[in-house]
TrEMBL record:
GO molecular function: O-acyltransferase activity
GO biological process: GPI anchor metabolic process
Keywords for this protein: Membrane, Transmembrane, Transmembrane helix
Coiled-coil intervals, chain numbering: none
Membrane topology value: Multi-pass membrane protein
Higher taxonomy: Eukaryota, Viridiplantae, Streptophyta, Embryophyta, Tracheophyta
GO cellular component: membrane
Origin superkingdom: Eukaryota
InterPro entries registered for this protein in UniProt: PIGW/GWT1
Species name: Urochloa decumbens
Record-annotated membrane-spanning stretches: 20-45, 76-95, 101-119, 140-160, 172-192, 204-224, 239-257, 264-283, 303-325, 337-356, 371-393, 414-440
PANTHER family hit by this protein: PHOSPHATIDYLINOSITOL-GLYCAN BIOSYNTHESIS CLASS W PROTEIN
Annotated protein name in UniProt: Transferase transferring acyl groups
Cellular compartments annotated: Membrane
Pfam families named among the record's database cross-references: GWT1
Length: 441
């Protein structure tokens, strides 16, 4: 009897769960654009509704002198609840029960934002507001939180039937919204990296020490998934490879090959162009094939070869972070030039993604090809460009929810992964009703 208990799998539906996220073809680029509009638009509307920053800061200073600590905590958590109800819950609804209404939801959010900017502020006041726009760093902070928030929701939602299959990761070519997750993390890290800030004093040993947590987490994931017989989609990165190893590999390469941020963009483009030529010359057939030999490279071919694509992506992100945040030379009224640059970059990357997808090679996260990299940048800068609109009306730049995530970015992501694993091991996600799934999420 003891032997039968030990032989019993902790995850009896492993094969069914793997099949549930396999052989998918993704969504359309237009739907990805719609979903990428909804999340930042909700944040912008919430920031506008939270009132003027100056007034709130003054009130906070006065409150600190007379209000007890308990009331401060009550106010903090009540604000956090409102942030949750106005940002997180609507996002969850759009990614599940309102998925068929994504375009309608996007339009219904864009219209009030446009009208509010057009009619609620006079032209003179709008110009005055532009000259007082907060730093772009605050918008990038909001953008990074949006990436983590959507990722935390999707990594569990994908295991339930309430989550549309087209939003999940595509098997070979095509892209669901989840395909953009790892790319978004790479871009988000690149924009605010030490390299983007032109800090090159870190030694190689220090660089290895800084990525040791990623390597530890990568091996921890391998041990956990094999130990509890957890479902693993081999077509994503390979048999042993995972998201953490990709981030670590990119960091190691960037530390070994030191390039001034001014030239990182050019080097990144050259790497991507060379890698794309290699893919088009036959490497893509090898990466798409299910055949694997016994060697470690073949076992993890998707993860190993895609490093080139992610490295090129990271270098371009470093260059953009440097030009947008460090080497700007913009002060006072010229600050709005940064916002215009973000919007132009978003449109340019989207156009390049569409051209490459149609005329070179279809978007593929599995290979991290040129089209995928441009799509990631287009989608990420679209989110960032919409978030910059918050400064046009209100100068309140950080929600309580954003501050909470910002102070615990890696911890939040790890906790979401742990909770996702626990839910999958304790709940039959495939047979859960829509109501049960939504309440768990």
């Amino acid at each position: 009897m003891e032997g039968s208990l030990l032989d019993k799998s902790l995850n009896p539906n492993k094969l069914l769960k793997e099949q549930f996220v396999s052989n998918l073809t993704g969504s359309s680029l237009s739907e990805i654009a719609a979903l990428s509009t909804i999340v930042p638009a909700l944040v912008v509307l919430r920031k506008w509704s939270s009132g003027d920053n100056t007034r709130r800061d003054a009130a906070k200073k006065n409150d600190d002198k007379v209000l007890p600590v308990r009331k401060d905590w009550m106010q903090y958590f009540s604000t956090l609840v409102v942030d949750y109800l106005t940002v997180v819950l609507p996002v969850l609804l759009v990614f599940t029960v309102l998925a068929e209404w994504a375009y309608t939801c996007a339009i219904s959010l864009v219209i009030p934002i446009a009208l509010y900017i057009m009619f609620k502020r006079s032209q003179s006041r709008l110009k005055a507001g532009l000259s007082q726009l907060p730093s772009l760093r605050a918008d990038i902070s909001s953008y990074r939180v949006s990436v983590v928030l959507v990722t935390c929701l999707c990594i569990l939602a994908v295991d339930f039937k309430i989550f549309p299959r087209r939003y999940a990761k595509a098997e070979t070519y095509g892209s669901g919204i989840m395909d953009l997750g790892v790319g978004s993390f790479v871009v988000a890290n690149a924009l605010v990296s030490r390299q983007a800030r032109n800090i090159t004093s870190m030694s190689f040993r220090a660089a290895l020490s800084s990525i040791s947590p990623l390597i530890f987490l990568g091996f921890a994931r391998i041990i956990f998934t094999s130990g509890v017989d957890y479902q693993v989609h081999v077509g994503e990165y390979g048999v042993h490879w995972n998201f953490f190893f990709t981030l670590a590999a990119v960091s190691i390469l960037t530390s070994i090959v030191r390039i001034h941020p001014k030239y990182c963009g050019l080097v990144g483009l050259l790497i991507l162009a060379g890698y794309q030529i290699w893919l088009s010359s036959g490497l893509n057939d090898y990466l798409i094939s299910d055949k694997r030999s016994a060697d470690i490279i073949s076992q993890n071919k998707e993860g190993v070869y895609s490093i080139l694509g992610y490295w090129g992506m990271f270098l371009i992100g470093v260059s953009l972070g440097y030009y947008l945040l460090v080497d700007t030379g913009l002060k006072g009224k010229n600050r709005n030039v940064q916002v215009v640059k973000v919007w132009v970059l978003a449109a340019s990357f989207w156009i390049l993604a569409i051209i490459l997808d149609n005329y070179v090679e279809r978007v593929s996260r599995r290979m991290c090809n040129f089209a995928y990299v441009m799509l990631v940048f287009g989608q990420n800068f679209q989110v960032l460009s919409i978030l910059t609109l918050a400064g046009f009306i209100s100068y309140e730049k950080n929600l309580v929810l954003e501050d909470a995530f910002n102070q615990n970015m890696l911890g939040s992501f790890l906790l979401a992964n742990i909770l996702t694993g626990l839910v999958n091991l304790s709940v039959d996600t495939l047979s859960a009703s829509s109501l049960t799934a939504f309440m768990i999420l």
